[in-house]
Design brief:
The structure holds three protein chains of three kinds. Chain A is mainly β. Helices cover about 10% and strands about 40% of the residues of chain A. The longest helix of chain A is centred in the N-terminal third of the chain and has 12 residues. By secondary structure, chain B is mainly beta. Chain B has one helix and eleven strands, in the order E-E-H-E-E-E-E-E-E-E-E-E. In chain B, the strands form two sheets. In chain B, strands 9-7-6-10-11 form a five-stranded antiparallel sheet, with no helix packed on it. A four-stranded mixed sheet of chain B has the order 5-3-4-8, covered by helices on one side. In chain B, a hairpin with a 4-residue loop joins strand 3 and strand 4. The longest helix of chain B has 14 residues. The model of chain B has no long low-confidence stretch (mean pLDDT about 95). Chain C is α/β, with parallel strands linked by helices. Helix content of chain C is about 35%, strand content about 20%. Chain C has 15 helices and twelve strands. The longest helix of chain C has 16 residues. Chain C is globular, with a radius of gyration of 19 Å. The relative contact order of chain C is 0.20. The chains are: A mainly beta, B mainly beta, C alpha/beta. The interface between A and C is large, with 54 and 66 residues.
Amino acid sequence: MTARRTSWPGTELRADDLVLGRVTSTKFRPDARYAWSAGEAMSRFLEELQRGRLIARTCKGCDRILFPPRMFCELCFRPTDAWTYVLDTGTIETYSISYLDTNAKRISVPILVGVVSLDGASPTMGLMHYFGEMTPEDLRIGMRVKAVWRPPEERRGSVLDLAYFRPLREGEA
Amino acid sequence: MTSLDRSTDPRRFPHWEGHMEADYIYTTGIAGERFFATLRDEGRLLAVRCGACKLTYLPPRLFCERCFARLEDWTEAPPAGRVAAVTVAHLDRRGTPLPEPEVWAFVAFPGIHGGLVHRLLVPPAAARAGVRVRPRLRPKAQRTGAITDLEGFEPLPG
Amino acid sequence: MRKVAVIGAGMTLFRRRLQETPKELCYEAARMALDSAGLDLNDVDAVVSGSAPDAFDGVHMKGEYFLDGCGGVRKPYMRVFTGGGTGVFSTIAGWWHVASGLADVALVVNEEKMSSCQPHPQSVFAHIWDPILDRPLQPNLIWIFAMEMNRYMTVHKIKKEDIARVAVKNKRNAVAHPCAQLADPDITIEDVLRSEVMAWPVQRLDISPPSDGAAAVVLASEDVVRKRRIKDRAWISGVGWCIDSTMWTDRDLVFPEYVARAAKMAYKMAKIDRPRKQIDFAEPYDPFDYKELHHLEGLLLADKGQAPRLTREGVTARDGDLPVCPSGGLMGVGNPIAATLGIKVGELYWQLTGQAGKRQIPHEVRTGVTQAWGDLMQYGCVVVMRA
């Protein structure tokens, strides 16, 4: 059938057909605002961030230390057991060098971002965050990094209370 | 706070605020283009007939929803209709009180499957179903090819 | 469970923006599919539609909005949505209707109108990120693909040339597809490697762009196929689907475990225990070039880290031993999310019934597998079809 058909449905438009009103259309902007509840686990997580600490939950069922913390283990399907802190050092699991900002606009100074698995949590338990004090060429999977915290008075109970992760220096834990 | 605490304000719980932002442009489509361009340029309301199902659709559409035939038999909508249902609105779409109440109606037309929702151009005290109405168009210079090219429906004189 | 066949398919052009409304897009695909099966709307017992976020078309509950274009008025109807997985998953949901005996004929219609979203559908993709953990970092969705691609490349020491080769293969394959948005007969690996870096290692020509489009397939029971003596039919031999947690930071992204589980489920049903030997061609989901490789491994058609070698050696070319994305894939034809049904299940149908025209694989194929992938790096679904 696809061999015999000569025309296929669909009327292509160019960007300016819409913008210049060559075809009729209507516009709308929804106005949806949200207050996303942090929930039990994330509320504590955010409070601890404000105190300069990273907190996790333990699950006795599978012996994992879950970070970021959660009130139930999705593998065992049971409530998690206890709070425990993890270190603010870790390993880069993967990364990207982004020349696009959140609005898909090009930026000339790239954002260095990736996933860090934190020491003290179960393997590969990661957190997405920025990298700093390094060049794109320095970045590699397996690099050991340490969190750089904002000054206490600037912390608001947010993942941004961490400014970024920087390379772990010789002699540091 | 946990599920054991109660409040009607989500902002009392630890939370993160944000919004979902996007702008939309909706094309009127193939059938819609013909309907709205005709409304804008000629001030006429078009409908389309399905001969097999003996239904005439307003607003007109590309296909019959019953028998799935492609519709090509365009015709003019009747000049007058009747208010099938009416309401008086006191709040806008965000829930903010309107400066003046607005009368809205669903208008049905003889021989037509469907109808149009629009302003009923009467004072709220006169809002009732059953009234015979006709469309009131905006002046041609103000028409853009949208449903707002109609100002609303007004009662037939007399 | 009853045997189910695909007996017809249809699709629209895939383009960056089409004038048709969502309903009209659905109608064009659904009408074509019914016509190709020699059926009419009153032959259809149930309708399933698939469409990705309402936020693309900008109509809340869009499945309920465009259902008349799907032929769903006054019929049993459901809309399914599994992110990018919808392109294949809606066929699985349609299969449930017929395999269970509830319907003899099910019409599956998928649609996407991403062009409504301004300035770019990217703005909506942003809302998939966790509001507390991710959104404060103001991420761009491409970051997550970049991170998966980087992990895959680093662990298996894969070079960008080997990934770019997939983009070249698919965009060239797409020249033979009448609906293709991005076909390019002349594209080279160098073109891909020179294209602008979006979020390293992802470059512009590694990605399929947003598209508008619709596609449909008709599913029928064995009885219907026999009674109506339908010759152009391809049997659904196996279905599988699986989802992983949205906590993607917990996982090593190097291998899509959830795709492998979905594949095993489908292969078990299809009595396939040596996929590389028993499967003749594949249409995995390729929204990025590296994803074709990643998914070939997830589909157990290549050992971990070995999919690039298959491309390099020409095994996955349209005339190779295991043609992959003979349609041109999302990279070549376009990516109207759910409407990719037409180049996944649709392509399997057209290839297995000898109707693929210039795309027809030059040697006989009897068993094909297709797969789609979605959500936040978490969902896989697989369908195996046989002539």
